Amino acid sequence: MESRAGGTFAAYNDIWLLDGVRTPFADYNGVLGTVSPIDLGIKAARAVFERSGISPSDVGSVIAGSVAQASFDAYMLPRHIGMYSGVPIDRPALLVQRVCGTGFEAISQAADAITLGKIDLGLCAGAESMSRNPIAAFTHRGGFRMGQVEFKDFLWEALLDTAPGVTMGQTAEATAKKYKITREDADHFAESSFARAVAAQKACFLSGEITPLASEKFELEGYKPRGIRLSKGAEKLDADTHVRPSPYETLAKIPPAFGGVQTGGNSSAIVDGAAAALVASGAYAKSHAKQPLARIAAVATVGVPPEIMAIAPAPAIRSLLERTGMKLDAIDRFEINEAFAAQIIGVERELNLDRAKLNVNGGAIAIGHPLAATGIRLSLTLARELRRSKLRYGIASACIGGGQGIAILLENVA
Q: Which residue has the higher pLDDT, 143 or 399?
C-alpha cells in the first residue's frame, strides 16, 4: 500500500472476491420506499452466505456503508447487518463512507485488513434508501425563532457541494461543455444504457446477481426482530424496476434538470437497494475449496477539484494503470458508474474508451445508483461479466461527490 501525490494505491497478490449478491434496485418511493437500508443490507448479507455456502462464523469483520442518515439507528448499520446475518457477536463491524465510492471502499478496506493479517474473510455491504432520505433541520436544537423555521430535503440539498457552490449535476454540465457533449449525445447514451440493461435482464444475466425480496422477519435470539415489509401491495420483488425500453424519441422530450444536457431520463436512476460481498484471502478460498468470482488486483483513489467531480474516474483509472504497469488496451471490460450521461461520455472521451467494452449490461442510468451499494454492484457485475465472456481483466470505477474518483482492477482466473 502507498500514499503519495496523485492519490492512494494498493496492490494485492492473493486476495479474492469470493462471492456477492444484491437486492433488486427499486424506484424511489416504490416497493422498497419504507424499508430501512439496514434491513436491505441484512437480506443481501444473508443471501451471500446462502449462495456461497460460506459460514457467517468465518467472518473476521463486517465492513459496511450507507451514505444517507435514512433511519434513526443508522449508526448501527454495519453491526446489525453482521449480527442479523449470523456473524458471531464477538466480530467487530466498521461503518465506512466515501459517498458514491462507499461500496468500493468497503471492498478495499476488507482487502487491506486481510493484507495486514487482521482477518481471513470480510463481509462487505452497502445499503441505501434514497426514499428514506430525511426532510431535515440542523439548527433547531435550541428552539425555533420567528420566521426562521427551516426544514430542507436532504436528498436534494446533499447534491450541492458548498465549497465551490456547485451541484453534482452542474459538474456534469461543466463536463458537457468541456468535451462538447450535446443533448443528443446524452440521450443516445441513455437509450443505449436502457437497451443493454433490458437485454441483460431478458437474458437473465442481471437476475444471476439478484436475491428476490419478499416481506419477511429477521430473528435473532435475545434481540428484537427486524425485517422487510414490501409496500404498494407487493408480494415479492425479483427484478430491477427502472429497467425499461427507453427510445431516444421519448428521452428527448424530458426537460433539462440543470439548464443543460442532463435530464431525469439521462441521469442515474434514484433507487433503493443493497449489495453484499465476501472478500477472502487465497488461503481461505483454497482451504474451503471455493472458486472465487475474481482476484482483487489493485485499488486506486484520487482527488480532483470538486467543480469537475464528474470526470474523476478518468484520473483514477489512469492512476490504477500507471501503478500496476498495465496498458489501457489490456483491459477487457469497464464498469463505470453512470452518474450522469455527460459524466460517463466525458470519461469515455478523456480516456478514449471503446464503448463496446463499457457497461455492456447497462449502467446506473437504467439500473439505478443506490449510493453505498453501487461499488459492490459494479464489482460484482464486472466479475460475472469477465467470467461469462471468458475475458481476463476488468476495471470498475466511479466519481465521488466532493471531488474524488476510485477504481478497482479485477482479474478473472477461471
A: 399
H/E stretch holding 166 reads strand 166-167
Cα-flanking dihedrals φ and ψ of residue 150, to 5°?
-135, 115
Locate cell 421519448: which residue?
Answer: 250
Burial class (CB in 10 A: 0-12, 13-18, 19+), 248: middle
Would you place residue 57 in the very low, low, confident or very high pLDDT band (cuts 50, 70, 90)? very high
| Residues labelled catalytic | 100, 399
Does the pLDDT value for residue 99 go beyond 70? Answer: yes
Residue of 77, 71, 68, 75 whose CA lies nearest to 155:
68
Residue 3 predicted with pLDDT over 50 = no
* Distance between CA atoms of residues 83 and 96, nearest Å: 17
Q: Would the CA dihedral through 33, 35, 40, 41 be positive or negative?
A: positive
CATH class label, 13-133+209-238+267-287 = alpha beta
**What angle do the packed helices 37-52 and 77-84 form, to 10 degrees?**
40
The DSSP symbol for 23 reads: P
Mean pLDDT of all residues belonging to the chain: 96
C-alpha cell belonging to residue 26: 427499486
Map out the domains of the chain as residue ranges.
13-133+209-238+267-287
Integer distance in angstroms from the first to the last C-alpha of the chain? 26
Task: State whether the Cα torsion 133-139-142-145 is positive or negative.
Answer: negative
Residue 363 has pLDDT above 90, yes or no: yes
Over residues 106-135, mean pLDDT: 98
Residue range 110-131: average pLDDT? 98
Mean pLDDT value of segment 42-67: 98
Half-sphere exposure at residue 306, Cβ-oriented, CA atoms within 13 angstroms: 12
Tell the burial category of 402 from Cβ atoms under 10 Å away from its Cβ (0-12, 13-18, 19+).
Answer: middle
Q: Nine-digit cell at 58? A: 468465518
pLDDT tens-digit map of 136-189: 999 888 898 888 888 999 999 999 999 999 999 999 999 999 999 999 999 999
Query: b/e string for 338-377 if b means 16 or more Cβ within 10 A?
Result: bbbbbbbbbbbbbbebeeebbbbbbbbbbbbbbbbbbbbb
